[in-house]
Amino acid sequence: MSMVDQTRQGQILVLTINNPPVNAFSPGVPEGLHAGLDVAEQDSGVKAVVIIGGGRTFIAGADIKTFDLPREQAPNLRGFVARLDAFGKPTVAAIHGTALGGGLELAMACTYRVADKGAQLGLPEVKLGVLPGAGGTQRLPRVVGAQKALEMMLSGNPIKASEALQLGLVDELAEGDLLSAAVKFASDHADARPLPRISERSAQGSPEVFAAAREGIKKTHKGQLSPSFIVDLAEMATNQSFEAGWDAEARLFVQAKDSPQSRGLRHIFFAEREAGKIPGLTKDTPTTEIKSAGVIGAGTMGGGIAMNFLNVGLPVTIVETSQEALDRGLSVIRRNYENTAKKGRMTQDDVEKRLALLTPTLEMEGLKDADIIIEAVFENMDVKKDIFGKLDQIAKPGAILASNTSTLDVNEIASVTKRPESVIGLHFFSPANVMKLLEIVRADNTSDTVLATSMALARKIKKVGVVVGVCDGFVGNRMIHHYGEEARKLVEEGARPQDVDAAMHALGLPMGPFEMSDMAGLDVGYLIRQHQAKVAGKPKPDGWLDQIVEQGRKGQKTQAGIYDYPDGRKPVPSPATDELLSRYRAEKNLSRREISPEELTKRLTYSLVNEGAQILDEGIAQRAGDIDVIYIYGYGFPAYRGGPMQYADEQGLGNVVADLEKYGQPPAPLLRKLAEEGKTFAQWDREKGRA
Ligand code: 3HC
User: Fold this and answer.
1) Which of 39, 111, 216, 575 makes the best surface tag, with the fewest CB within 10 Å?
2) Are residues 462 and 580 in the same domain?
3) Nearest 5°: phi and psi at 567?
4) Confidence grade of residue 42 (pLDDT, cut at 50, 70, 90)
5) Which position among 41, 105, 587, 677 bears the catalytic label?
6) Which pLDDT value is given to residue 532?
7) Based on the structure, what is the number of domains in the chain?
């Protein structure tokens, strides 16, 4: 079947694009569309052309997979758009589903646009580190004005068809069948001359609009390239010819597309979708329907987890051991919702509706009807085993029994039940109602159904689920442990904590390792270190971080940790820490040296990469892309860097290995092997790790 079907409806030629699933502008599509326009040009019986998408959507954009092809092999969207703009007969875009990026650009080069009521239209290119590259930056401001165009192009978020109608971006909303409405519209406008062309209009926009946009992107898109190109081009739409803007757009598009930022964002686009695919699990793997949930523990994690379910209308039973803890947990949930309502992001009515779905209880028996039960009590194996033993007695057959453990062995937890196939780890990240990541820990006996249901549940509660294997810390925390260790060493060698954190800010992370530790609470790591040393019969740990905790400085919660927190939240370098470090270095005879920002960034980032490679080798993560998704959604790694593994690919794995050796971190065997073979993690994913 051709990628573009031609059919005649009287004097109207209908071109239907068939490139499932989203009718991206892939190789074959422009050829088919050009052939259609050839017919329309040559056949005097054709008065107008309708372009429509077959299947679920209009064109969802350029084919992102072709971005790295040599120019001559990539489908020429601009060429087709230019032909449409100059075409001598009326053309009508019939839009349903999502007209995104190049799809909307193509539609804007048509003479008219008719949309289904449920359609959405947008220019999301900024999310891929590029800009609308087929006339979008020049046409959209000419239709909706520079301000609205900037809002759409900088957020990347689509608008609904009804709004598009109001803005004049579409000419008509179809009543009933879209194709019939578009064909009728085309017939009614077949003789309209001169043909209205958006490229011939002028665009409105004041200097203040562009100044505000330039200020805005410093906060919303700090460190990114394409948003400032978008603002420059939108401004050109208001004060230069269409041709000048169109040419500049082509140049800047290529510059943005060929940047590491765009490669990083595109990598994450595909990695996120790939993460949903689990080797061995097909689309037909049966899932169970989750109609209600149970949560054990109403602390920070339990409360946040419960909110995820309430937010999508699922009833939750929440269990605590004392009325006081239960009341406290409930009041935190209420306060969270009320704060959201105060910001105008939900109504008080919604607050009450969500809370009405919540059943607090002191009885585990209350969980007997839940389809999924998530245990979120503190990290202690004996306590968890006790709970799972009880759950085994109480939960209905087929219920999923999940632990929110962040470190413990899910196999051991499962071993106390008679149904290990129902047990899984669901590791939420704090604040659990906000962070998008869900590590889904597949234990040895977890059934395919439980795994597939958990993946589907992640999507339902709007999380990005990534499947990981059982090990201490799973993927995210196991890697962060090494990162924290490296940060600690860097300070011992002479760096100031604020310099270490600044090195990660420079990479685009909102927090460095020490700000993160202060926020999480320094006592957590302290207690683990003390416990591990005791169990191993080793002397009591006495590092500089231990000494800080022993001064009662536990982090943000005590308003003092590695940093001081005079206003409760904002970290300020601490003279007390400086003093402690000077004394510590003197006591331990540590010499101090200047460490460059470059060394700081490399050592910290590569400590993540090195452990990531080890995790891949052990099969704890299925793909390097999964690790990147974990770091973007769970740890604030900037998406435009593509995650730590993609960042390493960009640096060249040979360089990463050489640097690790230089800095005394032994490279993981897989990393060394890939470097020797001149390969990347992305190649490893393609060759070995993918489903
Ligand atoms: N190019 C190539 N593949 C694409 C694609 C695109 N533009 N858009 C989606 N796909 C693929 C996905 O990778 C996925 O593949 P898979 O099944 O092998 O994993 C499949 O299509 C289905 O996508 P989703 O799983 O995301 O399906 P949803 O129904 O959840 O969402 C969507 C559909 C809203 C269209 C979403 O896919 C999306 O947002 N796509 C990206 C749209 C976009 O960014 N367009 C602009 C492209 S850049 C451009 O046009 C440049 C131009 O200005 C020159």
Assistant:
1) 575
2) no
3) -100, 10
4) very high
5) 105
6) 85
7) 3
* For ligand 1, atom 54: residue with the closest CA: 133
d(CA 140, CA 608): 42
Q: Return the best residue to mutate from 64, 137, 270, 283 for the ligand 1 pocket (most ligand atoms within 8 A of CB).
A: 64
Active site includes 125? yes
Judge whether 171 lies within some domain.
Answer: yes
- Does the structure show a pLDDT above 80 at 371? yes
Closest approach atom of ligand 1 to CA 103: 50
Asked whether residue 691 carries a pLDDT value surpassing 80, the answer given is no
Which residues form the pocket of ligand 1, taking CB atoms under 6 Å from any ligand atom?
21-22, 24, 60-65, 77, 98, 100-102, 105, 124-125, 128, 130, 132-134, 136, 270, 273
CB contact set of 587 (below 8 Å; sequence gap of 6+): none
The reply to whether 363 belongs to the active site is no
What's this model's pTM, rounded to 2 decimal places?
A: 0.94
Atom in ligand 1 nearest the alpha carbon of residue 131 = 53
Nearest CA to ligand 1 atom 13: 270
* Pairwise CA distance, residues 372 & 398, whole Å: 9
Res. 690: pLDDT tops 50: no
Confidence (pLDDT) at 1: 60
Residue 556 in any domain: the answer is yes
- Are 40 and 172 part of one and the same domain? yes
Q: How many CB atoms lie within 10 A of CB 351?
A: 18
Q: What is the pLDDT of residue 689?
A: 53
Point out the domain boundary residue: 587, 622, 647. Answer: 587
Which one is catalytic: 125, 249, 486, 515? 125
Q: What are phi and psi of 100, to 5 degrees?
A: -120, 150
Do 555 and 512 have their domain in common?
Answer: yes
In a shared domain, residues 13 and 83: yes
pLDDT tens per residue, range 460-507: 999 999 999 999 889 999 999 999 999 999 999 999 999 999 999 999
Q: Is residue 487 situated within a structural domain? A: no
Question: Which single residue is written with the structure tokens 């632990």?
Answer: 403
Domain that holds residue 565: 495-587
Based on its alpha-carbon atoms, the radius of gyration of the chain, rounded to whole angstroms, reads 28
Whether residues 397 and 509 fall in one domain = no
* Same-domain check for residues 93 and 45: yes
Side chain identity, residue 210: F
